[in-house]
Design brief:
With about 180 residues, the chain is mainly alpha-helical. The chain has six helices and five strands; from the N terminus they run αααββαβαβαβ. The strands form two sheets. The chain has a three-stranded parallel β-sheet, covered by helices on one side. It is elongated, with a radius of gyration of 22 Å.
Length: about 180
C-alpha cells in the first residue's frame, strides 16, 4: 500500500470544506492536484470516499470510516515531530486555542503576554467559539486545545481544570438562603 500523509491531509481538507476548490486553496495546491491525489487514494484503497453527486459533497459510509482513521494517523504523525522537537531546547510551530467568549477577556490577559515573551517561536492562533464548535474542532483536529466551562462529559477529550470559580449569592438579610451553610 502506498498512501502518503499529504494525501490524508488533502482528504481531511476536503472533508472539512466539503468543496474541492476551497480545500485546494486551504492546502495551497491547485484543484486538479488535489483531485488527482484523492483519485489515487481511492484507487489504492478501492473505495469511493466522497459522494460527488451531492452539494456540498459528503463522505460515503466507507469514506467516513477512512476519514476518522486519517485523523488518527495524522495526529500520531504530528507526535513524531513533537517528540523530535522535545530533544532540543527551542519551541517552534503554532498553537491553536479555541476559547469561549464569556471567559476570553478575563482569562487571556493572565497568560498571553508572558507566553508570547517566553515562547517567541510559537505562533498563537486564538478563536472565540461556542462550546459545541470547540468540541467539534477538537474532534476534527482543527484546534489544539480548548478552554471552556466543564464538565463536558466527552469521552474522547481529556479535561484539566485551570481554575475554580467561587459562586456567590447576594440576598436580603432575611432571605432563607442566608441561613444555609457554606460549602
Amino acid at each position: 500500500m502506498n498512501i502518503s500523509l499529504t494525501q490524508l491531509e488533502y482528504l481531511l481538507a476536503i472533508d472539512n470544506y466539503r468543496h474541492f476548490a476551497k480545500a485546494a486553496d486551504a492546502c495551497l495546491v491547485t484543484q486538479p492536484t488535489l483531485s488527482m491525489q484523492l483519485k489515487k487514494l481511492e484507487e489504492e484503497l478501492k473505495i469511493i470516499i466522497f459522494d460527488r453527486s451531492k452539494q456540498p459533497i459528503i463522505p460515503t459510509e466507507a469514506g467516513a470510516a477512512l476519514i476518522e482513521q486519517a485523523r488518527i494517523i495524522l495526529r500520531e504523525a504530528k507526535k513524531l515531530e513533537t517528540i523530535s522537537k522535545g530533544f532540543d531546547d527551542s519551541f517552534e510551530g503554532s498553537l491553536s486555542i479555541g476559547i469561549i467568549p464569556t471567559i476570553a477577556p478575563y482569562l487571556l490577559p493572565y497568560f498571553l503576554g508572558d507566553f508570547i515573551k517566553k515562547y517567541k517561536g510559537i505562533k498563537l492562533i486564538i478563536q472565540e467559539l461556542k462550546t459545541e464548535d470547540i468540541i467539534q474542532k477538537l474532534n476534527k483536529d482543527e484546534i489544539d486545545v480548548g478552554i471552556l466551562a466543564t464538565p463536558l462529559h466527552e469521552n474522547n477529550l481529556t479535561e484539566e481544570p485551570l481554575y475554580y470559580e467561587e459562586i456567590m449569592v447576594y440576598a436580603q438579610a432575611k432571605h432563607p438562603l442566608t441561613k444555609k451553610k457554606k460549602h
